[in-house]
Amino acid sequence: MSLTAVAIANTVRFGLRTARDVVETTLEAIGTRNQTYHCVTRLLTERALHMADTLDARIANGDPVGVLAGVPFGVKDLFDMEGLVTTAGSVVLNGNPPATQDAAVVQRLVAAGAIPVATLNMDEFAYGFSTENAHYGTTRNPRNTDCLAGGSSGGSAASVAAGLLPFALGSDTNGSIRVPASLCGVWGLRPTQGLLPLDGVYPFVASLDTVGPFAGTVTDLQRVFEAMNGHALEEIEDVRSLRIARLGGWFLQDVDPAILDGIDRILAFFGSHKEVDLAEVARARASAFLISAAEGGNLHLPRLRKTPMDYDPATRDRLIAGAMLPSAAVVQAHRFRNWFRTGLHELFEQVDVLLAPATPGPAPRIDQATLSVGGKTVSARANLGLFTQPLSLGGMPVLSAPLPPAASASTSGMPLGIQIIAAPGKENVLFAIGKALSHAGLAGYPVLGGPVPDKG
């Protein structure tokens, strides 16, 4: 897919190209190239072509169509799609009845004219940061297929980075949008907790789950988010007047120096040298781990008692361990979460935007099992959310922004990403910052065979 979502919609709406041609081209590209990346699990060919023909007929009749008219997209395999069994990246749910309707956010995108063409690979039941799936295979990073795409929304991020789709949907509980967006070099958004409906989305951790989009440009990402949210965002008139700071302490340790250099350049662009610290970040991360394990484990406990061997062994063991956690520990984790969230929100009395790394460094190789954290050798897959997981407790919106290719010269050209964090409900601030950085060449990474970063 060589055009942005905005460009595709414009060409279709004004009759310069048919929606059928766009969809057929997309399906052909996926059929040819997906075997390299393993990001697509199912094609929605019949439905997509029917929707395209219907849209083309409406345009020919002069009927109004949505702002995403004819734009193909994919969904992480935990979104309900009418007529399909929602697998959540597993075979455990294969006996469930097909969904009777699309997930709520998918319905909103369809109403805006977008056309779903595929379901996308993920960690089983969204429990992981690597998209190594025992049932559907490992999704490979399009920037280097020897490397992980990240997870759990790895198929979504990889499909955009590969130029197969202009945008895709994912979910983010502890970093499942932000981590793969960073590792694959695309834009991703974890919206404000509770802002977008989760109807028709298979749950993982109800108290932390969110859904959001990936896109190759920040302009596309905003257009898609606005369609998901149901209204346009209020524009920020003077972006340079926003108060911006970096998170210090925990967020300066075990980070690739190129990421810190990228954050330095962004701060300089805004004329800021401010650094603020969060207290007890390590405990916040531990609380997120505990809450996720307990809620995920108890959600699956009835099925684990009946058909435990249907699960990926790694997922099964973590879910069983989580279900066995004592309730007192879970209660304490939630109490700590409330305290930590209050402190995080208080920072926004001092600043409008916070910056932090999205991952410790570039995507690890698939055969690279460990990385160094605090001088200790730890599991790479479990620690890719080192910087995303604590922030999930706050419920704020977070934009994952790729640094430009020049920033990754020291990482053999593999993408690096940052988190841009704002107060709840301030997605318009995030997009204003993202577009300013993209225009200035301080953020954005071109997708393969696709659009270059926004320049205005």
**How much β-strand is present in the residues?**
15-25%
The share of residues in helices is 25-40%
Tell me the name of the CATH class of the domain at 5-180 and 208-227: Alpha Beta
Low-confidence stretches: none
Q: Remind me, CATH topology of the domain at 5-180 and 208-227?
A: Amidase signature (AS) enzymes
Shape assignment: globular
Report how far apart the termini are.
21 Å
Cα radius of gyration in angstroms: 21 Å
Instruction: Give a count of the beta strands, DSSP E runs of length 2 or more.
Output: 17
**Second rung of CATH, namely the architecture of the domain at 5-180 and 208-227:** Alpha-Beta Complex
Query: What is the average of the pLDDT values?
Result: 95
Q: Given the helix and strand composition, which structural class is it?
A: alpha+beta
Biggest sheet architecture: 11 strands, mixed
Fourth-level CATH superfamily of the domain at 5-180 and 208-227: Amidase signature (AS) domain
GO molecular function: catalytic activity
Domain Amidase: 21-430
Protein name: Amidase
Pfam families: Amidase
